[in-house]
Amino acid sequence: MHPQKEKHRGVEQLVARQAHNLEVACSSPASATKNDEKAPDDGAFFFASGLELGHNPDKNVESVGEPSGFSQQKKMPLSEIFSTAELVGYTLPQLHVGKSWYVDFFAWDPISERMKRKKYMLDRIKKAGDRRAMAAILITRITHRLMHGWNPFVVDDSTRHLTELSEVIGKYRDYVSAMEAKGTLKQKTAYDYLSRLGTLETYIEECHVPIRFIYQFDRSFAVDFLDYLILDKDVSSTTRNNYRTWLSTLGTWLVERRYISKNPIEDIHMLREKEKKRDALPAAALARMREYLNKNNRHFLLACMMEYYTLIRPDELRHLKIGNISIERKEVTVPADVSKNHKERQVGISSKVLSLMAELGTFDSPSHYYIFGDGLKPGPKMTYLNSFRVKWEKMRKDLRWPDSYQFYSLKDSGIRDLANAQGVVVARDQAGHSDVAVTNRYLKKGAAVPDSVKEFSGSL
Q: What is the C-alpha to C-alpha distance for residues 146 and 94, in angstroms, rounded to an integer?
């Protein structure tokens, strides 16, 4: 083969090989472009550099017109170039030759809100002719991609990744409220979600977190937020884990709507939690509570007795209506839209509870009234969220009880006493547990050995 043809064929093969992987072939070395990263075949991606357009630290480097067909015009003033570039978001790439050969261009960085430089070094290609051929490919392809929306500073090719965080937060808040209105989310769940969202916004504001666009919602951001809760807000491991769970649901919501491509919370582990700080109430404490509430707040006494005897969860209790109670069958129906697991269930109600309800005139109200409305009396509007806890804390302070005695302790106490009297299976069904193992978690081992064990006489 003719030597000249062989030479051109070698260049063509080199150009063809390089064209398959533009970034690997032509990116500047790590030492020259430390912030550079591999560009995707499609989508967007930016690079930072402190050099200004037209400034060349190497006086021996000569700018060469674009081989892509763009003719070199009269040189523009720098201010005019940047004002034009900022309108379109980029400048066209061009080749520089001299001591170092490279192709560069500028693109708009949405984080720093200024034009930054992207540079491809060609020095690794030995022959000048091959460098010019590669520069032609680079300039043509870069120009095409820039004109079709590519940006080398954006790390995600999602169509929504540059949506501002404040806008996404607003849409998420509207979504949670809409799901609550439709009954898909319970009121307490919606309240918890929006409360945690508010804490996240407070963290961003208080700590001056530099997050503006939604694609910056990444693993580092989430870990820093969770550390802020532990270190600055001194929350418990349980509370931190609850926030982590919520962040994961938020991440899933963002992925489904293409704001981000992957849920960054999935790889964040849960912290080990201590045993819950909640104790069942002994018989003496239950008797003292009954005496106190009989004198001070009989409607709250009804709530406490229902929690102890029916084992219905506090938030489910708040949603119950008078029509959910059958006096004849001595049963309470927990509707599916009220139940935590979205399944309707029937639980027994003690004659003691029914007697107190009759004394309080509960059944004199319409069946569609909530059992616990304003002031914990029957009414058309259910009592406010956490009302049981607020009333309980006042009583606990008056009785000088420890913090481990909580309103939910009544459920622990009821499960313990019912299991001792009727067996753990009966307690399981009354509590609406899916398995006895769940019920057993409520039955803590006593500190003292029961007398029944000491007096037990077996067959041996």
A: 13
Task: Answer whether 65's CB lies under 8 Å from 94's CB.
Answer: yes
Neighbouring-strand partners of residue 370: 321, 379
Burial class (CB in 10 A: 0-12, 13-18, 19+), 377: middle
**Which whole-number Å values give the CA distances from 320 to 299, 339, 357, in the listed order?**
15, 10, 14
Cβ neighbours of 277 (radius 10 Å): 11
Query: 213 near 162, Cβ under 8 Å?
Result: yes
Please give the helix or strand (H or E) that residue 205 lies within, else none.
Answer: helix 187-206
* pTM (global) more than 0.70: no
Q: Are the beta carbons of 243 and 278 closer than 8 angstroms?
A: no
Q: Give me the tens of pLDDT residue by residue for the chain, a chain 460 residues long.
A: 554 444 444 444 444 444 444 443 333 333 333 344 333 333 333 333 333 333 344 444 444 444 444 444 455 555 555 555 555 678 999 999 999 999 999 988 777 778 889 999 999 898 999 999 999 999 999 998 888 777 887 654 555 787 889 999 999 999 999 999 988 888 889 999 999 999 999 999 888 888 888 888 999 999 999 998 988 787 888 899 999 999 999 999 999 998 988 899 988 999 887 766 788 899 999 999 999 999 999 999 999 999 999 989 888 899 999 999 999 999 999 998 888 777 888 889 989 999 999 999 999 999 999 999 999 999 999 998 788 989 999 999 999 999 889 998 998 888 888 888 887 777 777 877 767 666 676 666 444 445 554 455 455 4
Picking from 158, 195, 206, the residue whose alpha carbon sits closest to that of residue 173 is: 195
**By C-alpha distance, which of 192, 187, 195 is closest to 383?**
187
Give the alpha-carbon dihedral of 110, 113, 119, 120, to 10 degrees: 0
DSSP-based helix, strand, coil % in the chain, nearest 5: 50, 10, 45
> What is the maximum alpha-carbon separation in the chain?
112
Q: Answer for the pair 340, 263: CB distance below 8 angstroms, yes or no.
A: no
Rounded Cα–Cα distance for residues 99 and 92 (Å): 22
Contact status, residue 215 vs residue 260, Cβ threshold 8 Å: yes
**How many residues does this entry show for the chain?**
460
- Bridge partners of 62, per DSSP, are 97
